[in-house]
Design brief:
A 7-stranded mixed β-sheet has the order 16-15-14-11-13-12-17, sandwiched between helices. By secondary structure, it is α/β, with parallel strands linked by helices. The protein binds guanosine-5'-triphosphate and magnesium ion. Magnesium ion binds next to helix 12.
Length: about 575
C-alpha cells in the first residue's frame, strides 16, 4: 500500500458516527472508494457510542478479526461492537461472516458492496435473534441501498438486548446452582449415545446443575479440534445466549487441546464427563482422606491442561469444575501444582499406612469383612443402614457416599462380621480418580465377600453389572467371592424378579423392607460359613440346629437380634475402632 493510503486508513480511527446510525453514507463512501483502490476488503468495528474501535484491512476475499475476548466481558451479552466491512465482488454475507457474527456475538454484521466505480452498492446485514418459537439463530435483513439503510440503531440494539435478557430469565434455576447445556458428539450407535447422555444428565443434576438442553450429534467425521463442527458450535453458542447458559458439559472426555480450543472459540465454560464426576466428588468429600483423594485426582487431571494458560483455565477457577475440596484454590501454576501433587501423594501414603495397621489388627482378630459394592445409586447405603441401624447419607443422587463407612455386627449372635459401605462405581470411572482412590479400593481387597448390589429397577442394570465387574477386574478384586444382590425388587413384578435372579444368579431384596432380606441372609451365610473362606479363621460351618433356627424362627427380622450391632459410632461417621 502507498503511504498516503496507509495514512487515509489510519485516519478512519478519528471518525465518529452518530450513535443512532448504523453507518453514515459518507463513511460508507469513504470505505468503498479506498477498498476499491487497494483491492482489499476493509472492515471497521464500531462501538455503541459510534467510535471506531478497530480498522481491519484484509485481502480481496476476506478479513481476519482480531481477538476480542477482552472486549466487554459477559458471555451472555452482545459484544457491543458491530462490524461494517466491504465486499468487492458484489457478494452477500458469507458463511464465514455469519459464523463471526455468532461466535463473536457482534451487535450486527454489515457487508457493503463496492460497485465498479468504487461507490457503495447494496448493503447486506444480519443480527442474532433472541429465543424464538421457530428456534432461529439469526436474521438476515433484505439487502438495500445505503440511503435506505436507516434505523435508530441505539433504540433497536437496546430493545434487542432487553429481549435477550427476557429469554435468559425465562428459564429459572429451580433451586439448582447453575444452568448448563449437555453435549455428546460421537460415532457410536444412537442408543448408546442416548443412554450415556441420560447418565450424564443424572450426574449433572447430582452436582446441582439444571440441564436446559441436551444435544447429541453423530457426525460422519468427528472434528478433531472441537468435536463438533463450526456450524454446530455457532448454533450452540447462540442457543446459550438465548437461554442464558454459560456452561457446556461434554459427555466425552476432551483432550487438553480440545478443551482449550472450544473454550477459546466460544468463551463458554467447558467441562467434560471426568471433570463433572470430580466436581461431584469434591462436593461430597468430607473426611480428610476423601478430600485429599479428590484434590489429588483433580490436580492430576488438570496438570496437562495447565500447559497452556488459556481462558478455559482462568474461567475454571470459579464455580463448578473449579471447586477444590475444602475451598482449596487450584493454583494456575504447573510447578506449584506438581509440588502439591507430590505432597498429597505422600499424605495418602501416610494415611494408607494407618489403614493398613487397622486392617491387619482386624484380620488377626479373624473377623470376616463384608463389603457392599455396586453402581452408584444402587441402594448400598440404604442396605448398610438397614443392617447396621445407622444413618449414613442416603440420597437419590449419584455418588452420595464417598467415604467408606464400617461397622461391626454379630451375625446370628455367633459370628462377628465387619460390614462396609463404599463409594459407588460408574461406567468409565475417571482414571485419575481410580488412582487417587486406590487406598479406598485397596481396603476392599481385604473383604471376604463382596455384596454386589444392583438396582434391578434401572432400565440398564445389565450394563451396570458389566461396568462394575469390569472395574473389579481392573482393581484386581475379581478373585474375591461375590454375591449378586438385586435391590429395589419392590419396583418389579414377582415373576420378573424370579426370572432375573435365575438368569443372572443371585438373590433379590428391597433395602427398604427388612422382611425381604431372608434369602440374602441365607446366601451370605452359605458364602461365608458353609463354603468357608480361607481367610476367615473363625470359619466353621453351622450345624443343622443352627440352620434350622435360622430358617424356622423367621430369624431374619433385623430387630430380633440376629444381626446385632456390636459397636456404633456417631451417626454417619465411620465407627470401626480396634
Ligand atoms: N424403591 C426402592 N428404593 C430404594 C431401595 N433401596 C434404596 N432405594 C433408594 O435409592 C436411592 C439411592 O440409595 P442410596 O442408598 O443412597 O444408594 P447408594 O448405592 O448408596 O448410592 P451412592 O452412595 O450415591 O453410590 C435412595 O433414594 C433410596 O431411598 C429399594 O429397595 N427400593
Ligand atoms: Mg451410598
Amino acid at each position: 500500500m502507498k503511504p498516503n493510503q496507509i495514512r487515509r486508513i489510519e485516519h478512519i480511527y478519528r471518525r465518529k458516527i452518530p450513535p443512532q446510525k448504523v453507518i453514515t453514507p459518507e463513511i460508507a463512501r469513504f470505505l468503498t472508494e479506498l477498498s476499491n483502490e487497494i483491492r482489499r476488503q476493509i472492515g471497521i468495528l464500531l462501538g455503541r457510542r459510534g467510535s471506531v474501535e478497530y480498522v481491519i484491512v484484509g485481502d480481496q476475499k476476506g478479513i481476519t478479526i482480531p481477538d476480542l475476548s477482552h472486549y466487554r466481558s459477559g458471555i451472555l451479552r452482545l459484544r457491543g461492537l458491530r462490524l461494517i466491512h466491504t465486499h468487492l465482488q458484489g457478494e452477500p454475507l458469507t458463511g464465514e461472516d455469519l459464523t463471526d457474527l455468532a461466535l463473536l456475538r457482534l451487535d450486527m454484521i454489515v457487508a457493503l458492496n463496492v460497485d465498479e466505480k468504487g461507490s457503495p452498492g447494496l448493503v447486506h446485514s444480519a443480527h442474532l435473534l433472541p429465543d424464538n418459537p421457530s428456534k432461529k439463530v439469526l436474521e438476515i435483513n433484505p439487502p438495500c441501498s445505503v440511503s435506505h439503510f436507516d434505523m435508530d440503531f441505539l433504540k433497536w440494539i437496546q430493545s434487542l438486548e432487553d429481549e435477550f435478557q427476557r429469554g435468559q430469565k425465562s428459564i429459572p434455576l429451580k433451586g439448582a446452582r447453575e444452568k448448563a447445556i449437555l453435549i455428546s458428539v460421537g460415532k457410536e450407535n444412537r442408543e448408546s449415545l442416548v443412554n450415556s447422555m441420560e447418565e450424564l444428565k443424572e450426574l449433572a443434576e447430582s452436582s446441582g446443575v439444571f440441564v436446559v438442553d441436551s444435544i447429541i450429534q453423530r457426525p460422519r467425521s468427528v472434528s478433531p479440534g472441537t468435536l463438533m463442527g463450526e456450524g454446530k458450535l455457532k448454533e450452540l453458542l447462540v442457543k446459550c445466549m438465548q437461554l442464558g447458559v454459560d456452561l457446556i458439559i461434554f459427555d466425552q472426555n476432551l483432550t487438553p487441546g480440545q478443551m482449550a480450543t472450544i473454550s477459546d472459540l466460544t468463551e463458554l465454560r467447558v467441562l467434560d464427563r471426568t471433570q463433572l464426576i470430580l466436581d461431584i466428588f469434591a462436593q461430597r468429600a468430607h473426611t480428610l482422606d476423601g478430600k485429599i483423594q479428590v484434590e489429588l485426582a483433580q490436580l492430576k487431571y488438570l496438570l496437562p491442561r495447565l500447559a497452556r494458560k488459556t481462558l478455559a483455565l482462568s474461567r475454571l477457577t470459579g464455580g463448578i469444575g473449579g471447586r477444590g475440596p475444602g475451598e482449596t484454590k487450584l493454583e494456575i501454576d504447573r510447578r506449584r501444582v506438581g509440588d502439591r501433587i507430590h505432597l498429597l501423594e505422600k499424605e495418602i501414603e501416610r494415611l494408607s499406612g494407618r489403614r493398613e495397621q487397622r486392617r491387619s489388627r482386624r484380620s488377626k482378630a479373624g473377623i470376616p469383612v463384608l463389603s457392599i459394592i455396586g453402581y452408584t445409586n444402587a441402594g448400598k447405603s440404604t442396605l448398610f443402614n438397614l443392617l447396621t441401624r445407622s444413618r449414613s447419607q442416603v440420597e437419590d443422587k449419584l455418588f452420595s457416599t464417598l467415604d467408606t463407612a464400617t461397622r461391626r455386627l454379630r451375625f446370628h449372635n455367633i459370628h462377628k462380621v465387619v460390614i462396609t459401605d463404599t463409594v459407588g462405581f460408574i461406567n468409565d470411572l475417571p482414571k485419575d480418580l481410580m488412582g487417587a482412590f486406590r487406598p479406598t479400593f485397596d481396603e476392599l481387597k481385604e473383604s471376604n465377600l463382596l455384596i454386589h448390589l444392583i438396582d434391578v429397577s434401572h432400565p440398564r442394570f445389565q450394563e451396570h453389572i458389566e461396568s462394575v465387574e469390569k472395574i473389579l477386574f481392573e482393581l484386581k478384586l475379581d478373585h474375591i467371592p461375590r454375591l449378586r444382590v438385586f435391590n429395589k425388587e419392590d419396583k418389579l413384578r414377582p415373576q420378573e424378579k424370579e426370572a432375573i435372579c435365575q438368569k443372572y444368579g443371585g438373590v433379590s431384596i428391597s433395602a427398604l423392607r427388612p422382611e425381604s432380606l431372608e434369602k440374602f441372609f441365607l446366601a451370605v451365610n452359605r458364602k461365608l460359613w458353609e463354603v468357608g473362606t480361607t481367610r476367615n479363621q473363625e470359619s466353621h460351618s453351622m450345624d443343622g440346629m443352627d440352620k434350622a433356627r435360622l430358617t424356622n424362627e423367621d430369624s431374619f427380622d433385623i430387630s430380633n437380634q440376629n444381626w446385632v450391632m456390636e459397636e456404633r459410632g456417631n451417626d454417619g461417621k465411620p465407627s470401626y475402632r480396634d
